[in-house]
Amino acid sequence: MLVPNRNRIKSCAGALIGVAASLLFASCGKDPAATQQAPSAIPVKIEEARAVPVSDTSDYVATLKSRNSAVIMPQVEGQIVQIAVHSGDRVGAGKLLMQIDPLKQQATVKSQEDTRAAAEANLKFAQQQYERNSGLYKAGVVSRQDLDQNKSALDNAKAQVQALEANVREQQVQLHYYSVTAPWDGIVGDIPVHVGDRVTTTTLLTTVDKPGSLEVYVYVPVERASQLKMNMPVQVLDSNRNVIADSRISFISPQVDNSTQTILVKARIANNNDKLRQLQFIRARVIWGTQNSPVVPVLAVSRIGGQYFAFVAEKNEKGAYVARQKPLKVGQMVDNNYVVLEGVKAGDKVIVSGTQFLVDGVEVAPQEAK
Fold it and tell me: Where exactly are the structural domains of the chain?
């Protein structure tokens, strides 16, 4: 049986106690705050706000109108007896569109022609009488007075025939108006009347639109009237705000619309592919000018309560970068960037990643975004 060495046990216990005491003494001599690690900066990616040429534009709801659109209204009153076309038909110039009952006018023309025929017969008789009496006057059979009376009767007959001829032509022209024809090649619009309807000179029969050139009618608020200039660029946009036609201002109204306090502006639009239609509502963009403005990525911008914000990395007094939240006033979008009108200037280091973890004033470690 082995008996432990008491001296050896005592020496080991003393050594352990000495080590524990030295550790305790060493820990008591240090500041507890020194043992805590300082907070590290949050790594973020940044992009410099760059200035790019940006157009100063305004979008308005506008109306398209054909520069060659004829509103067809009758020039005579009567009852419609025939409609020879349908809405949407393509017609040529002179094509019959509608027929108004011409029977009464035809009877008037026939009566005028018969009256003219009687007057022509009377003229022929007066001419014969004058020629006969002229020979007798030369033979001394009739007096000068009789010859003058024959001459007066002949002149009256001629004047009567000329007047009746003018009346016949007028009535024939009037008869022509009972056939409503197309003024040019075009497309027939809506036909709101029917066979049997009685129409007057104020009744809308239809329209005939000539394909091709249109005009865009833009109503600009009077506050921007001083900025309007001839040949200023105008763009026509589709429902996705894509540009489908480019033009320039060709007319600026000298008057203000009293009911809307707007100024009418016109621009001519080529419609070669017939994508646009007469009286179509579209969106028109007036380009006021171009200026260099800073842009920031859309992903770097947040919106809180209708206000736009972005974080910018700025150096503090110690030379370290901290995140500063900037309220923004943004304009239109260019590609995937917002045009910044106020809040950020060109050259600012805009934070584009990790913005959901940032608060104003927190220290960050910026890295250039690739």
Answer: 42-56+292-368, 59-67+213-290, 81-206
